[in-house]
Design a protein that fits this description.
excinuclease ABC activity, eight-stranded mixed beta sheet, three-stranded antiparallel beta sheet, GIY-YIG endonuclease, about 45% helix, UvrC_RNase_H_dom, alpha+beta, 4 domains
């Protein structure tokens, strides 16, 4: 029987994606699992008739869990922990041949494939969920294209035309040294991410982008920052959310947290994009009932600043936006930024005698997760404290504002080169 302490822990688990670890009395992991909803998954263990699960539960004395931002992150972390600890019941409850591994061939232009059997190629795994793994690879391929053609050919393949293949990697003609290097970089990027090194990899990309920007190679800097944005969007929004859940959450849960007296129907998200202050742009995206409404999207070319000052640029954007009284006002404003940006937004609205709730979103000090900046609250609120629907809605709005700002920045930046 599961002891009362563990039962109480399970009842208090968050309804978020993550990893759970059962340990024995010697603190040795005996089972590692992942869940898109920790609370529901562990509660199902209390009602199971599976003799293997019952035996595992009877052997457990300690329960640990780690929340993750998405199902994909949970999938990768679970794989790392199973490989590290090789828990007894992970082996008992799933035959080794049924685990999935991601294979990387050793030829000049490596191919990526899934398998249950290991031979002489390089592998990352084990992974327990084949469906989630295929979805993860599909997402990663949209950022780091690679070849899946079984034979070389003379013309570009379909995957090349839809952005999933670099093209030259599957042609009979040999690729140039630069092309091969780009392809190998994509393969190595996927290896790092699937090996659980996503955060350090993103830091490398950011540093590389900054270095290119300092050398005035803005095209390459933008390309790398686009990759970072797409990758982070994948890890934020990997979970499928029902529209009804989003609508219910942002009308009640989020409004209750912010102590708002009316439902949150319309949210505006703002972001600023520039490199060293050049070609600075701002974006405003609008979500109504949890869905983007592009009729209310607006973009701003910064007029008053040409040096890096995101706070001053945000001030200009908000002042210009709220002079348009014909544009319907939102119920909530989400700023991409920390306390400085939120404070600026509050001051602008107060000066213009407009009462709208403002919140900000930023990375925490360790850049390991996101947090909300709420006026009047001394400390930031970790996004993990929100319901899954609230959390994913705000992350989606923030990502969309970022995408829209970068899209306009790129358009302005490229004009002088035409």
């Amino acid at each position: 029987m599961l002891n009362s302490t563990l039962k109480e822990q399970i009842r208090k688990l968050p309804p978020d994606s993550g990893i759970y670890i059962f340990k024995d009395s010697r603190h040795k992991p005996i089972y590692v699992g992942k869940a898109s909803n920790l609370k529901n998954r562990l509660n199902s263990y209390l009602r199971t008739d599976d003799p293997r699960i019952k035996k595992m539960i009877d052997s457990a004395n300690i329960l640990k869990f780690i929340e993750t931002e998405s199902d994909i992150e949970a999938l990768i972390l679970e794989s790392q922990l199973i490989k590290k600890f090789r828990p007894q019941f992970n082996i008992v409850m799933r035959d080794d041949k049924q685990y999935f591994f991601v294979g990387f061939t050793k030829n000049e232009m490596p191919r990526i494939y899934l398998t249950h059997q290991l031979n002489g190629d390089k592998y990352i795994g084990p992974f327990t969920d084949g469906s989630a793994l295929k979805t993860t690879l599909r997402f990663l391929r949209s950022v780091f294209p690679y070849c899946t053609c079984t034979q070389s050919h003379h013309n570009y393949c379909l995957n090349y035309h839809i952005g999933k293949c670099l093209g030259f990697c599957c042609l009979k003609s040999s690729p140039s040294g630069k092309d091969r290097k780009n392809y190998l970089n994509n393969i190595k990027s996927i290896e790092k991410i699937l090996s659980g090194k996503k955060n350090s990899f993103v830091k490398e990309l950011r540093k590389e982008a900054d270095d290119f920007a300092k050398k005035d190679n803005f095209e390459k800097a933008i390309e790398l920052r686009d990759k970072i944005t797409k990758l982070e969007r994948i890890f934020r929004n990997a979970k499928i959310i029902k529209n009804s859940d989003i609508l219910k959450a942002h009308r009640s849960g989020l409004g209750s947290l912010l102590k708002m007296s009316k439902p949150i129907i319309k949210i505006e998200g703002y972001d600023v994009s520039n490199i060293q202050g050049l070609h600075a742009t701002g974006s405003m995206v609008t979500f109504v009932d949890g869905q983007p409404n592009k009729n209310f999207y607006r973009k701003f070319k910064i007029q008053t600043k040409n040096t890096p000052d995101d706070t001053a640029m945000l001030k200009e954007i908000l002042e210009r936006r709220f002079r348009h009284s014909e544009w319907p006002f939102p119920d909530l404003i989400l700023i991409d930024g920390g306390k400085g940006q939120v404070s600026t937004a509050v001051k602008v609205l107060k000066k213009m005698s407009i009462k709208i709730q403002v919140i900000g979103m930023s990375k925490n000090e360790r850049h390991m997760g996101h947090q909300l900046i709420i006026p009047g609250r001394k400390t930031p609120l970790p996004l993990t404290k929100l319901s899954p629907a609230d959390k994913n809605l705000l992350l989606t709005i923030d990502s969309e504002a970022h995408r829209f700002a970068i899209e306009y920045y790129r358009k302005l930046h490229r004009k002088p080169f035409r």
